[in-house]
Amino acid sequence: MIERDWQQAGQYAFTTDLDAAQWAWEFLRRNPTYRAEWQAFDRLWRELESLYGRPPNRDFAAWKRDPRTWVAASDCADGECRVDQDKVLIECAFGARWGFYKFPPDPHDDDVVGAGRLTWRPQEASLPLVEHDDAAWLGRDPQRVALGFDLSLPLADQLEHAKRRLQIVQRQRITDGSLRAPTIAAWRETLTIALRLLDAEMSGASGPHMACVVDDWRSQLDTARALRDGGYRRLLRLRD
Fold it and tell me: What residues does 120 pair with on adjacent strands?
């Protein structure tokens, strides 16, 4: 991972060219739990390779007999890993836990997405059932809206009409400034600030010093932490 001076905005010019998948990696690689888990995984992997070799000379039979190369399938609920006698390979379970395919990448690697060493697993969007009295979900959040459907009638026409209606409402709210467009371009400045604040925090900078990045650094740091700690997968839904 290239060490960047978080106080220098110019050192984050690389973010101009990032797509949604690359942005997601930038936040995940800064996650302290991921970093710690990867270090433990890497130590174990190197130990296994010292015992059983590396492909194509690996003793695959002995590798598979070592219980450290597997986790219970019940411990890998978040993914589509191959199950072998109620066991899942540790590398697949690791990736599934964090939302990606392929071998777990080193958080110090800068562009595992562009190099093809990480592919994000699709994440199904949640659609809550909003009841007539669910004001708590709607609140005054311009990001949320609810439409009514008549379940006694066929849904196909209603769903098509709902799609058009939602597109109109979305455009109106983007135009009046109450909603940000669901694109990387619209979010790039906020995301770049978030990376700088996370890097500042990782370097041990005190809170007040972060004001040189952005005045409302407290709320922006909260946003940055939320993206780092799981919200990175929401970025994959933004248009490049």
Answer: 100
Give the pLDDT mean for 191-197: 97
Residue range 111-136, pLDDT digits in tens: 999 999 999 999 888 888 887 667 77
- Residue 17 pLDDT: 94
- Strands (DSSP E) found in 31-150: 70-72, 87-89, 100-101, 119-120
Which amino acid is residue 236, in one-letter code?
A: L
pLDDT digits (tens, 9 = 90+) for 198-227: 999 999 998 889 999 999 999 999 999 999
The answer to whether residue 97 is domain-embedded is: yes
The widest CA-to-CA distance across the chain, in whole angstroms, is 65
Cα 91 from Cα 98, distance rounded (Å): 11
Q: What is the pTM of this model?
A: 0.91
CA angle 30, 36, 38 (to 5 degrees): 90
Range of the domain at 164: 144-175
Identify the residue whose tokens are 């590798």.
63
Instruction: Give the chain's domain count.
Output: 2
Query: Over the chain, what is the mean pLDDT?
Result: 93
Whether 37 is in a domain gets the answer yes
Q: Are residues 95 and 156 in the same domain?
A: no
Number of other residues whose CB lies within 10 A of the CB of residue 128: 9
d(CA 172, CA 158): 21
Consecutive H or E run containing 185: helix 184-202
Reference 227, options 200, 202, 190; nearest CA is 190
